[in-house]
Amino acid sequence: MAHHSTPEVARAVVGSFAIDGDAIDVKTFERGHIHDTFVSTWRRADGSLRRYLHQRINDRVFTDVPALMNNIACVTTHLKSRYGTPAGDGHMRSLELVPTRAGGTYLVTEDAPWRTYVYIEGTRSFDRCDTRDRAHEAARAFGQFQSDLIGLDTSRLRETIPRFFSSPYRLVQLEDAVAADLVGRVKGAKAEIAFVQGRRQLVDSVDCAMRAGAFRPRIVHGDTKLNNLLFDESSGKAICVVDLDTCMPGWSLYDFGDLVRFTAARCKEDEQDLALAGMDFDLYAALVDGYLDGAGSASSPTTLPATAISRSRATITTSTAHACSSQWSPTWNDSAVRWSDGYVRGVRGASSREWCARRSEGRRRRARRHHGAGGVDA
Q1: Domains of the chain by range and CATH?
Q2: Model confidence at 347, in pLDDT bands (50, 70, 90)?
Q3: What angle (nearest 5°) sits at the alpha carbon of residue 353, between those of residues 350 and 175?
């Protein structure tokens, strides 16, 4: 993390939020890599206990904190109006911001900005997906999340990280890094750089479609990893989408593609045993079904970017499923560009580069076997 707070620092801050009762405990919450997170326990006047989650916001990553908190407030307020009071039994609910005692959505201190959420009890998260049911449920929740946000005007949300969804911008970054070659790695990465350059037309496909007005932007999550969902411990249902920092206008396929990339992978992102790398197509099929079940009519716009991505390929697919299963979605290309850029700049090691390239080749072979060579063209 970019900065490190302590429970003692957090304890001095939490009293500035509009929480009834007395804080009796503040502990570090070991999840996530961006913000410093803590959980506090409060004893209320009736003797009951309630917990809250506090985060010291990393304003080095999110430099426009007002925009960040505006987006989160807009999204959570909108979702709360749709979901109403949490009813249990697996019903969806929204994160709930706790205002400061002055009425703000976040607290500004000399050290850093802070925010507070109500802690959602009786839930758990997962770093790996090991069942089709869980994959289906995760995709359903993210699909419903997008669908439930259709009524929220996209103009109310701001860009929290400039060009976060722009694959062409990632390509420019890579080209700049190649031209500079500050750490002398270009010679050893020629194959990977050529691989990316040979697929330039895919990188710009969705941006071109958006500029042409081929489909409307949606409010998307932007980081649809499995562990950004809370599952009800009793029902096993996904009931809350968390980590809303990258919620902003974008395109639906990004969320689905990122969900597939993380959830259907057979190994961790930093796995060094190459034999474990690949995609679980049973989980992938469950993700397709779940996403369409959750998104409903909101899923129809994703067919347009899926077609744009495949327009120069032998088979043009009209479903999000085929576009993402081939691994040639903009999400995949964005990952390839970012990994290559990081390696050339010297922020990723050689072992990571080798692993990423070999994992990609393995995925191509598996995709061809699963869909047939005509449906997937590298």
Answers
A1: 7-121 (3.30.200.20), 132-375 (3.90.1200.10)
A2: low
A3: 105
